[in-house]
Amino acid sequence: MNISNETKVGSLTAISIVLLILGFNFLKGRNLTVKSMRFYAIFENIEGLTSSNAVIINGKQVGTVYSTDGGEDMRKITVALTMNQSVKIPENSIAVITPSVLGTTSIEIKLGNSNSFKKDGDTLSTIASKGMLADAFQKIDPVLIQVANMVRSLDSVLVTVNSVFDVNTKNNIKSVITNLNNTTASLAISSASLQSILNTQTGVLPKTLNNISDITSTLKNNDKKIDQTISNLEMTTAKFSKLELEKTLTTIDGTINQLKNTIEKVNSDKGSIGLLINDPKLYNNLSATSNKLNLLLDDVRVHPKRYINVSVFGKKDKNKPLTSPLPDTINAPYTK
Question: Closest Cα partner for 41 from 93, 117, 113?
Fold first, then answer.
């Protein structure tokens, strides 16, 4: 059977197209012979991740990155993962982007311990990558990680200190130090003055203490004389106080006796004052004289012509004199 050249060319062309499609899918991580599963992961920074980058679980490539889409916003980038083999991924698994020193970025899925598993089309939880240097430090020496953390902490502390110690605070600290220097200088001067005061040869305080010591020694030597002087002073004051008291009591006693005699004379009828106070005759005479004087004054007021006659041709008042005071005179305030 002869096959035409056209058929051969067409068959070769079809086989080439099929091989091209299979190779392209293979390069993109697609396995046409196995039913693949697809998962999604959302990152803020994919760190240069592109399509066909590897998806690794425990160091083994189990799939490839199918696509990356950040939309117009580009704040959240969705990464589609295609699995080349059937894999059970627990619910609490985490996807993280792992940069490589050689420049090839991959996605590593860290399996969790949940008993339930992700289904086709589910979205995996993600965490931000620590960076290539952090992973390298972690693999080289864990101590370097602690040092880096300490450096970051120290940097934070220095930033805090710089924020606290602003210009005003620094100026205040300088002022405090200046005042402290002035205070120490004043204390030095005060200590020198105190030292000069306490000097045993020229100091004021030792001289004063010596004078006080001399005075106390003198008082101690004259102790008997001082006691005698105090005794004499007490006797003298006692005599003066006694003398003054006796004179005062004598004077008061005499005054009381005189007052007593005077009161006795006033109460008796043997003196002018006693008669004036105790004898009713004087009161009666004074009362009668007062009434007669009132009668005379009323008569002069009513019959003045009887006592004073200045008219040449006037008539003599022949009315009889009053024998009793007028009513207005009887009711006058001075007769009550």
Answer: 93
